[in-house]
Automatic annotation (TrEMBL):
Keyword Ion transport set for record: no
Stretches for region Disordered: 399-427
GO cellular component, one term: membrane
Protein's organism: Gordonia alkanivorans CGMCC 6845
Protein name, as recorded: histidine kinase
EC number from the UniProt entry: 2.7.13.3
A GO molecular-function descriptor: ATP binding
Domain Signal transduction histidine kinase subgroup 3 dimerisation and phosphoacceptor: 200-265
Membrane-spanning intervals of the chain: 38-57, 88-106, 112-130, 159-177
Catalytic activity: ATP + protein L-histidine = ADP + protein N-phospho-L-histidine
Lineage, highest ranks first: Bacteria, Bacillati, Actinomycetota, Actinomycetes, Mycobacteriales
Domain of life per record: Bacteria
Stretches with biased composition (Polar residues): 414-427
Length: 427
């Protein structure tokens, strides 16, 4: 027994080696066919059906012995093409079924003009053609198969073929809609990811402008006013301070050029809440050390304001002080953070008219729009305009707790308003 198994394994190995090296096995079409498991499945099914059709064919049909392999082949082997070439297999099956029904006589008592295996093969191939070929072929396949089956089997099968055609058409429509939905979902995800990247770029640009512009402006102001604030500054030290101011201006211009690449106009994002109301006092102190006269009036506790609102207030005060330092040297600035109506915080940064020429630090015009975007992002409003005395005022109304819809009732969306009073009238 053991020796028989050994001989069978050896014979099987030799057959596999021969089959793999045969010329037909090297054909690209043959190699492509057998490279897929589903084709192997239909190939095995075709062999099984052929092994049934050949011996049963003499029972149902009067066929000469030498024609048995050929007729049985038409009744079974085309199903091997059900996946790789369903239209070709269906055409062979339907034509051979009609030809066999017309020219091959049957034995008495057999009601069909074809074998059962041939009928099963035709149904399977019809289903595969309707499922995988172009939609325009479905009416042709349905009509041809219905006529052949009505002649070879029974006219009642026309109803079954019609139901099959309708079901397959609906199934293909459902599959197509799911594919389109998957494509649109992927496109939406890509668009959302791109939008998130653009919003993050805008947030980074806005934060860089708020932080870097403020710090560099302080460097310029402190460098240019050092000779007036410090006694006995030598000419060499004064020249060094001027060089520092020039370098700071150049760096600030380069940073603004980079921000022009990063910034996307119209993007609205809520930055991560880092600094808040507690850091407003240190911001004012830094501005005072630069030689500016700043008065702070803060009547709002940190616990009364949410983190995102506190960050927006801090950024508005930071940008307003930086603008006042750059464009209104020698002015008096009043910073006011007080409770407002309907759970809001009133923020005002108002500077008087300058007593010296501007420092000449160019801007890129994103400061006030950036403040407006931040205010709108938490449902607030912001107004910025010159005062009647020649100064400038920035007033914002920020919800202590931003509303869910991001809209504050009666929120003003404009950055240009009629001239407002100066700090003197406020005080």
């Amino acid at each position: 027994m053991f020796g028989l198994r050994k001989h069978l394994r050896a014979a099987g190995g030799d057959f596999v080696d021969w089959a793999s090296t045969a010329p037909i096995a090297q054909d690209p079409a043959v190699r492509a066919y057998f490279s897929k498991r589903v084709n192997w499945f239909f190939f095995v099914v075709a062999l099984i059906m052929y092994s049934i059709a050949w011996p049963t064919l003499p029972v149902t049909h009067a066929v000469p012995v030498f024609l048995l392999p050929l007729v049985a082949a038409f009744a079974a082997l085309p199903i091997a093409l059900a996946w790789s070439a369903p239209l070709v297999g269906w055409a062979i099956s339907v034509v051979s079924a009609q030809v066999i029904g017309l020219i091959v006589p049957t034995h008495s008592g057999w009601e069909l003009t074809i074998q059962v295996t041939h009928f099963i093969e035709l149904l399977v191939l019809t289903f595969m053609v309707m499922l995988r070929c172009q939609l325009r072929w479905i009416p042709v396949v349905w009509l041809t198969t219905s006529l052949v089956v009505a002649y070879a089997v029974h006219p009642a099968w026309i109803v079954g073929i019609s139901v099959l055609a309708v079901v397959v058409t609906l199934l293909r429509g459902l599959m197509a809609s799911r594919r389109q939905l998957a494509v649109r979902t992927k496109q939406t995800e890509e668009a959302e990811a791109e939008s998130a990247v653009l919003q993050e770029r805008a947030r980074i640009a806005r934060d860089l402008h708020d932080v870097v512009a403020h710090r560099m402006s302080m460097v310029v102001v402190m460098s240019q006013t050092a000779r007036y604030r410090i006694d006995d500054v030598s000419p060499a030290a004064a020249a060094e301070f001027d060089a520092i101011a020039d370098a700071a201006r150049t760096s600030l211009d380069e940073v603004r050029q980079l921000l022009g690449v990063l910034r996307i106009e119209g993007a609205e994002t809520v930055a991560a809440p880092n600094p808040g109301l507690a850091q407003v006092e240190s911001l004012v102190d830094e501005t005072r050390r630069a030689g500016s006269e700043v008065t702070l009036n803060r009547e709002v506790d940190d616990e009364m304001v949410g983190e995102s609102a506190a960050l927006v207030i801090y950024r508005i005060v930071q940008e307003s002080l930086a603008n006042a330092t750059r464009h209104a040297p020698g002015s008096r600035t009043l910073v006011s953070v007080t409770p407002g109506e309907h759970g809001t915080v009133e923020v005002a940064v108002v500077n008087s008219a300058p007593t010296a020429a501007p420092l000449g630090i160019g801007g890129n015009g994103v400061g006030i729009p950036g403040m407006l975007e931040r205010a709108q992002a938490v449902g607030g409003s912001l107004l910025a305009a010159p005062t009647v005395e020649g100064g400038f005022a920035v007033r914002a109304r920020i919800p202590a707790t931003p509303p869910r819809d991001g809209i504050l009732p009666d929120a003003a969306r404009s950055v240009t308003t009629p001239k407002v009073p100066s700090p003197a009238s406020d005080q």
